[in-house]
């Protein structure tokens, strides 16, 4: 951080997001960083080329554009360093490949992002890593699952699709006694609402595709590590040659400037919708950590500063045979909501969740789990569209 930005250390969230990661004075006063495209980087002489002492040596090792984004993420995370990768799934797979080897044992929360489970059950298993899934609410009792060869414990709070909360501090404190790395997928909260490294996590993972981008048009992941784990992560990232593109980095950095404002709108609108759903016929239950009725609410209130726009509810079904037809009828009747797998953009989305891959924490059995991403639309219009879905589901 340059001297003229020392004031940022005590600035508010919106101010930091507006000014962090880039100093206009470094590029002739232009407000936004330039997009530097690079593969080949030239050296002034053979000695400099041999020793690689200059800041930039090749495009895969960063450009001023990607460095600007990394600096901004480090500021938000409080991390020693950040690497950029092409997707959220890559942001999970890179640290897993960094800290796990053949013969190691890894503990993965059972409410994990589904593609992460697939990566573990296929790629990591093939490479000789033993994968074990654990209950998201295990807390300090995770000690009983630790083994001499346990090298990584992966967390995600709240959990994908069903939003179980985890006691991250309790888990990290136990796991560190075994000299084991703790990783966390914090995409739902972003570092604005939860800072994993402050709670003992070693490596914080985000799908920047979601809220940092905010516009459903960029794929990118960020991986941020504490001082202990940063050298190994940085080396592995460099070795694999997996990097984020400068154009995408520019767009993510641009999205960061408004992320807090957007998240606040997502938070308030989603909570209104969740509260409305709780009192509506046809809804068995609402899975949202910010609701007092949710089992993990007190933990969310203790550790988190806010909630994003993604949550689920259970669409009631009289019999198991009606679960899928009702879910399809509900989704097909929606007009404002799009049917899409991602979230974090400005538009509302809905998905019929498949929880058949769960091993320890099974999903609700009393109806269809519908995940909603509440976008930036007017909440009154969202209510109208959801009523269309409920009317269609009730007709079956």
UniProtKB/TrEMBL annotation:
Catalytic activity: L,L-cystathionine + H2O = L-homocysteine + pyruvate + NH4(+)
Record has Hydrolase as a keyword: no
Named cofactor requirement(s): pyridoxal 5'-phosphate
Keywords from the UniProt entry: Lyase, Pyridoxal phosphate
Residues passing through the membrane, by range: none
SUPFAM superfamilies: PLP-dependent transferases
Domain of life: Bacteria
Pfam families: Cys_Met_Meta_PP
Record-stated family: Belongs to the trans-sulfuration enzymes family.
PANTHER family: CYSTATHIONINE BETA-LYASE-RELATED
Protein name: Cystathionine beta-lyase
Highest classification ranks of the organism: Bacteria, Pseudomonadati, Pseudomonadota, Alphaproteobacteria, Hyphomicrobiales
